[in-house]
Amino acid sequence: MKQVLHLQVNGEDVEVAAPPHWTLLEVLRYGLGLTGSKQGCDKGDCGACTVLVDGEPVLACCTLAAATEGSGIRTVEGLADKGGPSRVQRAFDACGALQCGFCQPGMIVSATALLERNPDPSLAEVKQALSGNLCRCTGYTKIFDAVLAAAKDRVPGMRADGSVPMAYGTPTDGFRYVGARGRKADAIGKATGSAKYTDDLTLPRMAHGRILRSPHAHARIRSIDTSRAEALPGVFAVVTGAEMPHAFCVIPWTPDEHALAVDKVRYVGDGVAAVAAVDEDTADRALALIDVDYEVLDAVLSPTEAEAPGAPLVHDRDWKDRPRQDNVCKEVELAFGDVDGALKDAAVVVDGEWHYSGSTHAAIEPHCALAEWSADGDLTLWSSTQVMHYLHRELARVLDVPEAKIRVVQPVLGGAFGGKSEPFDLEFCAAALARKAGRPVKILYTREEVFYAHRGRHPMDFRFRIAADAQGHVTAVDNDIVLDGGAYHSFGLVTTYYAGQLLPGPIRFGTYRFKSRRVYTNKPCCGPKRGHGSVQPRFPLETALDEVAEKLGLDPIEIRRRNAMRAGEHTVNGQLVPSCGVLGCLDAVEAASGWKQRHGKLPFGRGLGVATSMYISGTAYPIYPNEMPQSGVQILADRSGRLTVFTGTNDIGQGSSGAIAFVVAEETGIHPDQIRVIAGDTDLTPVDLGSYSSRVTYMAGLAAQEAGRAMRDVMVRAAAKHWDTTPSDILVLPGKYLLISDPEKQLDTAHVLRLAEALLGTPVSTGGGYRTRKLGGDYRGGTIGASPAYSATAHVAEVCVDTETGHVKVERIWAAHDCGRALNPVMVEGQIEGSVYMGMSEAVLEDQAFHLGMEKRRAMPGRDRTRGMHIGPNLLDYRIATSLDTPDIDAFVVESVDPGGPYGAKEAGEGPLHPAIPAVANAIWDAVGIRMRTMPFTPERVLAALRAGAAEVA
Amino acid sequence: MLRMPEFEVHRPSTAADAVRLRSQLPDAMYVAGGTDLLPNLKHHLHAPKHLVSLARVEGLSGILRAGDGTLRLGATTSLHAIATDEVLRAEVPGLAKAASLVAGPQHRRMGTIGGNVLLDTRCLFYNQSLPWRRALGSCLKSEGTWCHVIGSDKSCVAAQSSDTVPMLVALDASIEVTLPDGSTETIALAGLWTKDGRFERNRNLPPEALLTAVVIPPRAAGHRSTYRKVRARQAIDFPQVGVAVAAGFDGDRLSSLAVVVGAMLPHPKRLDHDDVAGRPLDDALVEHVAERAYKQVRPQPQVHGDPGWRRELARVETRRALRELLPG
Ligand SMILES: Cc1cc2nc3c(=O)[nH]c(=O)nc-3n(C[C@H](O)[C@H](O)[C@H](O)COP(=O)(O)OP(=O)(O)OC[C@H]3O[C@@H](n4cnc5c(N)ncnc54)[C@H](O)[C@@H]3O)c2cc1C
Ligand code: SF4
Ligand code: FES
Ligand code: FES
């Protein structure tokens, strides 16, 4: 039963009929189509839904709509005035405060409310006012900049009319646009609430899908009876695993997962059945009517349990349908050089056990998919994915439909960090339900389901040994790694390799050996999270290196300098590192942090720590071997002077579309304002393998450079013909082409494009690709971890340890990152700041933890059902840092100019996360003299370690 | 998005109507700011058929100071108003501080003092979705029969998690309520809570009673107060430990002292300690009271944080809270 509400929304009187149990967020989004206000948790934990009710910032998801009758409501859509976006919105855009943008409508509303009552706030007041708005991308740094810039009316690049050009800064010497500070391709739409994320789309007759999930960590499904659910009025379709019998996996040769469980459920939250219904209430009711008969099995919740003799098998058979003997998903062992000899001869050996706890991506946008079939049986799937192409392939496999009949579209994406880099059950289920129901179906994960979808950082146990000679040169590293994989394979074999293969560098190893074993457990599946597989082993390496330095009486920065790799070197495992700016990074953070004067000399409780890392710029080889380009870019010119660039990359908030626009602008001389990037649509855009492994700037950047160059060649030829001269007589400048022999003669780029079209007699379009080069070590597995370029990073962290409570406050992090060349420094800084934030949050706060079973005296008689339950699958119990917990972040861009990257560019999105965890651990040592070998560094752990004795290992 | 049970919403404009609706309608509940209730409804912890919204009830909101120093906080006064009110900041600084530490800025604008006083107790096994709880087999406070925290089928130790409650108890505050028969009553807060954390059993108050105001009696001469909160993040998080202290000073000598520990038990715990009258707040006294905090609260793993650590923190934060009262 609906009731009519009278509201004044963004200055307009509206009447809207809504059921009384709807929240204000539902009335805005569903009732009024105002999709600018976002939903990130739906229960008051994240702030994405913040709107103003009678001038006060409130959470629309926890506001009863009926109670707001007669109120005045302002949403992000209403903040822009007739003159266009508000100054706050402009400032957020110009300052690079928007990455994925999903948190930003709420953030901008909170910031606007602050500035309306306090036009000139201090930084502390800004942090306080935004402390109920979680952002997962930016590290808040540029958000603070933007609010202060708006307050002071100092929006960078803002013209008199209030607009801001795409590139407003000065380019690097010798470049037309590269190096200029600039905006992101799609940011203003995000700031004003007009950008459409997947859940913002609705289609006529659309049904809402929901997935029934396993209440058991491990059980055999005896039967599923969906008849009562099917009979419920308003239910259009129900599907079960039996209807999608093909297993899938992002790695095509290890399919061990089904769209919905077929025989067993393997973790609490595993999908069992799905329904599509007229609305969400009916869908929920239908789920409760599905009867599943389970035979509950013992669960294994840690590698230790999983490897115990007689442990139950998570998978009875492997992907080749061979019976399994154990729970080992993948095992790798590689050795380079005489490790045992080096350990024996070493001046110092540090040997111990470390534990890295799991964490999850927690992008603020929950996964969402919308599927529609045409009358001809063609599927369109809109999905919040970061790997459209792999999704495309797996959809075809699971749905049994040729790829040519499937179109995958990635709308604006609200953050991913690796958490959307493989197919998920909702995509298959939305498609299968839509086919069965004969109408479009949307499925939106609840925040809880996002925690079950997971694919986050693997917990890892290390037995780690490092040896050095008397000068501190690392002569051996020996690492025995156990990865807790969760229930499925995911990228498992890659992660298993990465945990070992990505470690050598920028610290040079004399010899190296690793054993790496990924074990299945009855928990949500782990996968790639920002710094896939390689963040974890950096923790033992970089903290043990500090111990080596201490034993040798060396400064921690000095020992890293002594071991720093140089450009052109090969790692011990045979990877060529064409450029390496780690020394520059160390210099930058050493100077900025006052290291020489302060390290080792601060009062008890305060300390500095350093750490370094290196990361790939894309993996050398695609996930499935093929001869086609890994990235393709097409450019189409319009007579208006505009270029449209088509790319299959997925802009997940990192700004890849903007980077590609900058590359094309650089090549053609056409201003980025005149370049539109169309990305993420398998019907419209050439294949790109997706946004993972930090591959986009490098690989799609090179493809864009090739396509741009071809466009420029045509334009130069056309200009030459126009002036009746040779192409070498043409100079390409920003916005214009000039005749060198008679510099008075100039043409604007729009004119040149028209000449080009006339010259060719066809539309002017060009293409470019990134083709796989032969790279990698000459041994089995040697191509895994091979990359055309490697970034380098160094952090210095400053912490304050409360010795009575154990709390570690990370106060400041100086982070220098070698990205080869910054195409747009604003975006590179944003990636560094966001990475630092995510790493430090992981270091001290986050833990994707599960109940492992109660002590006997607490356990429920009969069966202890807590085993395998997620401790708190929500953004209140899983704590990601707020604006008040985030340290001051000083980002430094170091440019080593890679010989192979576009203008020398390489990755910036993942590398800068790695050192945060060991840098914080090393700073704790400097502060209070304890070595933390288990993370996160919670106050309980730190206090216990402090009590266990100052110099003892925790 | 998450579904709530289907209910109707009523928006009475007088307290009497509110109580009448709440008493007469079947399965009705009050809702003020909704920041506690709505997440709980999304978790299907209750299944009301009717919600009686207090948003429009006249005279329920506002801060009044009587000539004798009595402070009357209307039940629907927002926590933001309490945190920023000049009079409260000057006269009961600990309360303004406690209110300023609740949740995040938006919650403090939505959340009311009445809702904060009557905040349901919290537990990691309770404040979860219905599918989550079902997978667990639920618990004594929800649909089940077993307490997973203490391993018992008899009692629930879900934690009193309001930040203002310990402070209000330390201030000897009381609440004014309107009862179903229309009568009004003033009830001392100290006696409001039971030792059972279950909903409705947690309070010595009929569920239909409408809280209309929180009343803080005149403070002792030389009143000083503060509140300290332990939480993982500096915003949003509920307390893992809360310590409220209120003291009267006569010069540098104490005339009275109340220390109340929150977030550990289903009720706020006022510490027993030696008589302080006439004593300076010196190290010995600080240590004595801090030790009592450690001895008198035994937290369980019902909220985040190792219970032994939380217990230790009760000592540390009590010590710190007391030191905050010392000038300079
Ligand atoms: C993410 C998050 C974090 C939070 N963190 C904290 C925190 O750190 N500290 C903290 O103290 N709280 C916290 N809260 C809880 C909540 O925001 C506050 O306690 C708030 O003060 C509750 O007030 P309300 O008006 O919103 O209550 P409501 O949700 O409206 O009501 C709460 C309960 O009290 C009853 N009730 C309300 N008013 C009356 C009345 N006048 N008479 C009778 N019954 C009434 C309701 O029926 C309901 O049972 C948090 C909430 C969220 C969602
Ligand atoms: S303390 Fe026990 S009974 Fe109470 S909510 Fe927690 S688990 Fe349930
Ligand atoms: S969606 Fe409302 S607070 Fe997260
Ligand atoms: S920009 Fe804040 S969550 Fe992505």
Keywords:
heterodimer; A: 954 residues; alpha+beta; Ubiquitin-like (UB roll); DNA polymerase, domain 1; 5 domains; seven-stranded mixed β-sheet; B: 328 residues; Uridine Diphospho-n-acetylenolpyruvylglucosamine Reductase, domain 2; Enolase-like, domain 1; five-stranded antiparallel β-sheet; globular; binds flavin-adenine dinucleotide; binds iron/sulfur cluster; binds FE2/S2 (inorganic) cluster
Question: Could you give a quick summary of the protein structure above?
Answer:
The complex is a heterodimer of chains A (954) and B (328). Chain A is α+β, with helices and mostly antiparallel strands.
What is the overall shape of chain B? Answer: globular
Q: What proportion strand of chain B?
A: 15-25%
- Our count of helices of chain B gives 11
Number of strands of chain A: 33
CATH 4th-level superfamily of the largest domain in chain B: CO dehydrogenase flavoprotein, C-terminal domain
Average pLDDT metric of chain B: 97
CA-atom Rg of chain B in angstroms: 20 Å
- Binned strand content of chain A: 15-25%
**Quaternary:** heterodimer
For the biggest sheet of chain B, the summary is: 5 strands, antiparallel
Helical fraction of chain B: 25-40%
N/C terminus separation of chain A: 60 Å
Give the low-pLDDT segments of chain B. Answer: none
Domain module tally of chain A: 5
Can you put this structure into words, describing what you see?
Chain A is of the alpha+beta class and 954 residues long. Chain A folds into five domains: 3-78, Ubiquitin-like (UB roll) (Roll), CATH 3.10.20.30; 87-167 and 186-195, [2Fe-2S]-binding domain (DNA polymerase, domain 1, Orthogonal Bundle); 200-301 and 365-453, Aldehyde Oxidoreductase, domain 3 (Alpha-Beta Complex); 533-614 and 786-845 and 880-948, Aldehyde oxidase/xanthine dehydrogenase, molybdopterin binding domain (Aldehyde Oxidoreductase, domain 4); 631-770, Aldehyde oxidase/xanthine dehydrogenase, molybdopterin binding domain (Aldehyde Oxidoreductase, domain 4). Chain A has 24 helices and 33 strands. In chain A, helix 2 (87-94) crosses helix 5 (141-151), helix 19 packs parallel to helix 20 (696-722) and helix 20 (696-722) crosses helix 21. Chain B is an alpha+beta fold. Chain B folds into two domains: 1-58, Uridine Diphospho-n-acetylenolpyruvylglucosamine Reductase, domain 2 (2-Layer Sandwich); 63-118 and 159-324, Enolase-like, domain 1 (2-Layer Sandwich), CATH 3.30.390.50. Helices cover 28% and strands 20% of the residues of chain B. Chain B has eleven helices and twelve strands. Chain B has helices at 15-24, 37-42, 79-84, 86-91, 93-100, 105-110, 113-117, 130-136, 164-170, 283-296, 307-324, and strands at 8-10, 28-31, 50-53, 63-65, 71-74, 174-178, 184-188, 210-216, 223-230, 241-250, 253-262, 269-270. A five-stranded antiparallel sheet of chain B has the order 4-5-8-6-7. In chain B, strands 9-10-11-12 form a four-stranded antiparallel sheet, with helices on both faces. The chains are: A alpha+beta (954), B alpha+beta (328). The complex binds flavin-adenine dinucleotide (FAD), iron/sulfur cluster and FE2/S2 (inorganic) cluster (FES) (2 copies). One FE2/S2 (inorganic) cluster (FES) binds next to loops of chain A.
